[in-house]
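Lab manual, section 2.4: Encoding a predicted structure.

Procedure: take the sequence of the chain (344 residues), apply the prediction step described in section 2.3, and record the output as C-alpha cells. A sample record is shown.
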Amino acid sequence: MRKGIWLLLITFVSIMVLSACGTSGDDSSNGSTSGENDVEEGDANTTDEVYTIGATQIVEHPSLDAAYEGFQKALEDAGLEVEYDFQSAQNDQNNAVTIANNFVADGVDLIFANSTPSAQSALNATKDIPILFTSVTDAVESGLVEGMDQPGENITGVVDLHPDSIKQTVEFIDQYFEGATIGLIYSAGEANSVAQIEAVNQAVEGTSLSTSEATVGNSSEVQQAATSLVGDADVFFIITDNTVVSALEAVIGVAEEQDIPLLVGEPDSVKRGGFATFGIDYFTIGYRTGEMAVEILTGEKTTADIPVEIPPSMQLFINKEAADAQGVEWNEDWDADAELLEKE
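Recorded output:
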C-alpha cells in the first residue's frame, strides 16, 4: 500500500516538473517574438515619421504660390514625409487669425506662414509651435522678430525684399524716365506695404522723381485707384502689396490703355504683364525656408538658432512685350542687362 502511494507521488511530481518546463519554454519563445516585434515597430516609427505642417497664406497669387511650392520641394528633397494643411485667408486678416488658431488647436508640428499678416497671426496664436515665414518684407518692423540676427524663440524665416531692390528700381526709373512722377498703389492696412512705400519715398529724395499715392482697402478698388492716378503718374510702381498684386491685371489694363510703364516688385508680376523689376525668385526663398523647416523638424536646430535671412540674389527682369504694350521705347542696354521674360 505504502509502495503504491509513493509511486503515485513520484509520478505526480514528474508530471508537474515536465509541465512547468513546457510552460517556461513557451513563455521564453513568446517573449522573444514580442521583443523582436517591438524593435521592428520602433524602427518603423523612427524612419517613417509623418510630420504635420499647417501652411497659412494671406491670398493666392503666383509669387506666394511659388514660395509655397519651393517650401514643399525642400522637404521632399530631404526625404521627409509630410502632411500639409494648406489654408488661404482670401485676403482677410480675420480669416488669417482663425486659421492660425485652428492650427494651434490641431497641434501641428510646424506652421509655414506665407506673408506678413499670416506670420503675425501665427505668432499671436502660439509661442510654442515653430513658425517659419517667408514673403515678409520687413520682419523687424512688422514685429515678428527683434532683429535679423535675433530670431524669436519660435519664429524665423526668409524675407522677400532684397535691401537694394527698391533703391535700384528708383535709380532705374530716374535713369530711363527722368523727371517722372511715380504712381504708387498700396493697401495702408499692410505693414509690409507701408514700409515699402516709405522706402520708395526715401529713395526718391535727391533724384529728379516725385511720387503720387493711392490706397485701397481691397482688391476690388485697385482699378479705380489706378485710374485715379492717370494724369499724375508717368510711371506705375507696384510694390509687393498682396492686395494690389492679387488684382494686378486691373493695373496692367490701365497701364496699357494710357501708355504708362508699369514697374513691379517681383518677376511673377513681370510674367503677368509688368514691364520691369529688380526682383527675386520666390521659389528660391520658399525653398530656403523649407530647408530651415527640415533642420527644425529633425531636431538639428531650433528657430532661435537660425537668423532671419534675405534673398540670396537679385537681378533686372524685363517683359519686352509688355514694354511695347505700355509705350516704352526700347533701350539696347536692356538686352545685355536684363533677363527677358515673356508674358504668360
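Check your result against the sample. The mean pLDDT is 88.
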